[in-house]
Amino acid sequence: MAQRLCRIEEIGEFGKDLALPHAEGTRYLMLFRRDGRVVAYDNVCPHHGLGLNLAPGRFHFTRDGWLMCAHHGASFDLETGSCVSGPCRGAALKPATVEVRGQEVWLTDPDTAAGGSE
Ligand code: FES
After folding, report:
1. I need a surface site. Which of 18, 41, 43, 44 has the fewest CB within 10 A?
2. Tens of pLDDT, residues 11-58
3. Can you give the residue ranges of the Rieske domain (predicted)?
């Protein structure tokens, strides 16, 4: 079962965060546009389980293009989700499977949230 997340143009230069109702509470996601694709992960830092951004829709990146957690500076490769430096080096973000259908982004992984789905 898939769930519509947003229109692709809603994902800004610094990403987009979402909070979705879920059977086990709220699922927090972060979406990024990369080379014409959309990549998505749970917005949960493997260091202390916090969201990586401090402000809505405003994620931070290093000069090398790594996604950087705003709390303690762990940096992640958006292609793999792996932490490449910082306090949780070697850990990884949890990926979320999304599809772009026309101009809309859909969550399609088995952990899809309840409600608002097709
Ligand atoms: S919570 Fe992300 S680096 Fe500490």
Report:
1. 44
2. 999 999 999 988 888 999 999 999 889 999 999 999 999 999 999 989
3. 3-107
**Nearest Cα residue to atom 4 of ligand 1:** 72
Q: Output the ligand 1 site: residues, CB below 6 A.
A: 45, 47-48, 50, 69, 71-74, 86-87
Q: Which residue has the tokens 């026309």?
A: 102
**Could you tell which of 43, 44, 88, 94 is best to mutate to test the pocket of ligand 1, judged by most ligand atoms within 8 Å of the CB?**
88
The angle formed by the CA atoms of residues 38, 42 and 47, to the nearest 5 degrees, is 130
CATH number of the domain where residue 55 is located: 2.102.10.10
Which pairing describes strands 16-22 and 25-34: parallel, antiparallel, or unpaired? antiparallel
Q: Which atom of ligand 1 is nearest to the CA of 49?
A: 1
